[in-house]
Amino acid sequence: MLITSLKINMAMTDPEQTPDPKLLNRWLKTQKASANGRLSKAIALGSINGMLMIGQTALLAFIINNMVFVQQNVSMALVGVIGIIVLRAVLGYYSECYSRRGAMAIQSDLRSQLLKRLFQLGPAYTQQQGSAKLSHLLHQGVDSLEDYFAGYLPIVAYCSVIPSAILIAVFPIDWKSGLILLLTAPMVPFFMILIGHKAQHLNQLHWAKLLRMSSHFLDIIQGLTQLKIFNASRREIKAVKAISDDYGDQTMDILKIAFLSSFFLEFLASISIALVAVILGFRLYYGNVDYLLALWVLLLAPEFYLPFRQLGAQYHAKMAGVSAAADMVEIFNQPEVNSQISVFNAPFTIEFKQVNFAYAGRVSTLSNINLTLNTTGLYAIIGESGAGKSTLIDLMLGFNFPADGEVLINNEPLNATNRDAWLKNCGWIAQQGHIFYGSLAFNVAMSEDFDPQRMEHALQQAGLSDFVAQLPLGINNHVGEGGAGLSGGQAQRLALARAFYLQPEVLILDEPSSHLDWDTEQLVSAAINQYAQDHLVIVIAHRLNTVIAAKEIIVLSQGQIIEQGNHQQLLALNGYYADLINLPTTEEQA
Predict the structure, then answer these.
(1) pLDDT tens for each residue of 347-400
(2) Which pick of 44, 166, 524, 546 has the fewest CB atoms within 10 Å?
(3) HSE-up of 468 (CA within 13 Å, CB side)?
(4) Contact predicate 567/553, CB 8 Å
(5) What does pTM read for this prediction?
(6) Is the CB of residue 555 less than 8 Å from the CB of residue 562?
């Protein structure tokens, strides 16, 4: 289901500034279409339930009046009341089922659309936002919407339907009581909104602190080994305690507002019901109203205010939903990616023409980049840390786009509309390639179905054949998430085997020889050089001995290409590259 778009001025330059809650609430309501009519059915059944409640109270008033004053047989009326109670229970059950299933459908659709948009935005955006924040949004953030759609929205509908139906029933028989109900009804939502403004602000701060706390905890878990190594775990425990206490204090502030809101709602509803009861009592005393009608109105009075009281109880669900929606809208309001059929065919030529790029709030990261990578061969990118190597690769893959200039793939500008088509031809192996929980075969082929011959060839190229042969289950042996059970070198070779198996036309590697011993490094380097004979291979090189055989070496410094050529050409320049080669050690230079 397509997400309905509602553009909201995010004013993201100020982190404390949030979108208008009214616009966020309106955006959330537009997502009801994903429920495929389930919420409408739930509201319809709940409204019918409310109508039956009016009939039920009328029968109860009739039964009590006849038993006390008339003393007539009321067996049929009792049967009618029992039938209505059973019918209302059935309607209530199905109304709840429809509302919960509708909410689940909306949650599923929202989560799917969020993931799709995050894939479109690429790793650069997810790194900028933080994996912990996005993970929390996709799980708890989306989950928090269940009570909004299944609880808050139906109650809002009941607040207009059920009280209106009661007023329509009461006014013809007792306009004075109807007038009291009509005049006191607005007091409940008025005070709820008055208190809710303060609660909404606190809830947004609470959500922001929860996101920060989640990010901090995830960072600690990921860096737990380093914390133990440097004996910094006790310090982090104190930091976690401080953050947790601060979050707890914020939670208590919200609970104070919630309890205060509930108190006022119950107090106002009780006062209103008491006012109706007192006035009816005086009118009965003076004989201005019939006992049957007075009793019926008195039975209807609590039911008249019940939807408003339930709305107050569900108001926290609205606040939680609106707070989570702010981050969702931010993602959906990123530039749209229009569907466009693009096809890129090998061999590939990648061109950078006068490319300039800078991250938000930073000075220029890349300046005046003019570069051409032709068809096949091994290209190496070197430079000190912060020179712009990773940014250059991000631009090449379409994860970021130039502020000025353009990146061309076979003379076609790379943009958001054709990036996915381009990425189908690319393979990327990071310095620490991710290993998934599952068999070695799955981690290589990314599928349980694989070609045994291609698998064996890929393992040989990556230098893993002997290691796999020694395992009890061979290629079907399982590894843990993140490569648990493998050494750093084995995990790196497994990621390389994945690239060799999938055979991307363009292979990008971030120091493929890291974590490898000398013999394995020579084996892997030879396999990469052989692969580069028929494919375009781009290596971010930290060890200079891995780039000597490169077709072309691109030397970056402070975001600019300062030297470019093969090994012999760069040595002849006697510049930056030559100085690196002539250093006593050629280990990590970037």
Answers:
(1) 899 999 999 998 876 767 899 999 999 888 999 999 888 888 888 998 998 888
(2) 44
(3) 25
(4) yes
(5) 0.67
(6) yes
